[in-house]
Amino acid sequence: MEMATIVRARGLTKCFKSTTVVHGIDFDIQPGRCVGFLGPNGAGKTTILRMILGLSPISGGSLSVFGRALPAAGRYVRAHAGVVSQEDTLDPDFTVLENLYIYAAYFGLAKADVAQRIHELIDFVELADRGDARIPTLSGGMRRRLSIARALINDPQIIILDEPTTGLDPQARHMIWSRLQDLQRAGKTLLLTTHYMEEAERLCDDVLVMDHGRILEQGAPAALVERHVEPEVLELRGAPDLIEDAVDGATDCRVERIGDTAYCYTRDAKALLDQFEQRPGLTYLHRPGNLEDVFLKVTGRDLRD
Amino acid sequence: MAMAQTARGAVSVWRRNALVWRRLMGPSLLINFGEPFLYLLGLGYGLGLFIGKMAGMPYLTFLASGILASSAMNTATFEALYSVYTRMIPQRTYEAILATPLEIQDVMAGEVLWCATKSLINGSAILLVAALLGAVQGWQALLVLPLLFLIGICFAGLALIMTAFAQGYDFFNYYMTLFITPMFIVCGVFYPISSLPEALQSFVQILPLTHAVALVRPLVAGGPVTDVALHLGVLVAYAVAGLSIATVMVRRRLRV
Hints:
The complex is a heterodimer. Chain A is α/β, with parallel strands linked by helices. The longest helix of chain A is centred in the middle third of the chain and has 16 residues, at 170-185. In chain A, the strands form 3 sheets. In chain A, strands 6-7-8-3-9-10 form a 6-stranded mixed β-sheet, with helices on both faces. Chain A has 11 helices and 14 strands. Chain A folds into 2 domains: 7-226, Rossmann fold, CATH 3.40.50; 230-299, Alpha-Beta Plaits. In chain A, a hairpin with a 2-residue loop joins strand 4 and strand 5. By secondary structure, chain B is mostly helical. Chain B has one domain (2-254). Chain B has a two-stranded antiparallel sheet. In chain B, strand 1 and strand 2 (57-58) form a beta hairpin. The two termini of chain B are 26 Å apart. In chain B, 47% of the residues are buried. The A-B interface holds A 16, 53, 55-57, 74-76, 78-79, 83, 85, 87-94, 98, 102-103, 105-108, 150, 154 and B 5, 8-9, 12, 15-16, 19-20, 23, 91-93, 95-103, 255-256.
């Protein structure tokens, strides 16, 4: 049996005063999928999440979640969604456990009903030994994990995460990733925004690449890589004139530059490698094409504020 | 349905605030008891020696009843300005709460109830101190307690309108200096309104604190309470208008 689409947007538009930040976009999110919204700052990612939760009025088009139209269904949608916001919004006056109990109360869940669940949740995010710790004493990674536990308090069908690993160290990031993968395996629908391409490639079944409020591309990460970039990439670093010479002599490749680095995209790296070997002082990195290459190609290489 | 949801949501917000208060109860109660004690002892006894009776009652009683009403105003105002702003913007508590089924009106209702609760806690302390100092004439003074709650709702609603617009704490100085402090001075807390110039006497009738004092004073002093419907009506009208406008304004600010 095919399960119903969880989120469905048609011509979804959002304007703030005279500026349009989301331009009539269409997308569907199917149950059990992990979908990533990728885009530079100001692409409209957070605004879309806010509209999905009924926190931001819709300026045009239609948006439904669990088959109910927003923003009217806001209360219902939020009752069945878990949210991890970009900045920590934990209550600093409370301990880890108190944060979870208080949050459960907002969902109308009484202490006795959630005691068991809260203990499972702090185990899940590995904070069982910090239950009585106050929020200011937790590290950034612990706080984010607690935010995830808090988002799961109502056993949500969809979990919405706005840049879940921004500002975390690599260990903390890997820990978050593995928890999110656990949730995926448990059949939850995940919706996340990120500007880490590695994160999107690792976690997402589908990505939507956005810029200036429009969806530029969507699909599975591997499919997008195949569609947009050559299989192999040589990144050249070194003195500018050295790179200039190397690139001029290079054949059978597409060259892009960002700052002092030149990227040579090719289907046959061997020929290029042979050429570059001849040039002393030139350093290069040979790697497969990835989602970051797609992202930069699709959204352009201009610096964003 | 919607009302029941709002009531449930408001209670959960109220409980959150009450739990934070319980955490910091010690210093908070010290202020609640210490301030009126100093005021009533210092001003009531000290000035009372020179003043004797005012409006037919001992000055200590006159002052205690004024302080009861004005403290309910100050407590609710302070909570609805500084504490609510902290939760709404820098501390991001609202961001977390609004990601749950709660709507803006639920949160606003919970905040107002909490501010009024603080007025009630603070007022109870003052009433107790006043009674111990012999300023309270009779058990009818206990009717002041629900009244303090209403006064709290009234001033919390008004202050929330300011909070809805605030870009920082400094903004509240306007409200305190231009609205709250003048009321504290002219609405009959320290001396009868009848001693004001005539034009000002009419003007203070539109200020909510005047009506709060008019109800609290006879209850504390043991005299007849007059114009109950008028005084209650003004307080309720300010309360309803304040909460309604504040809810619209906060929604306009946060639901963008």
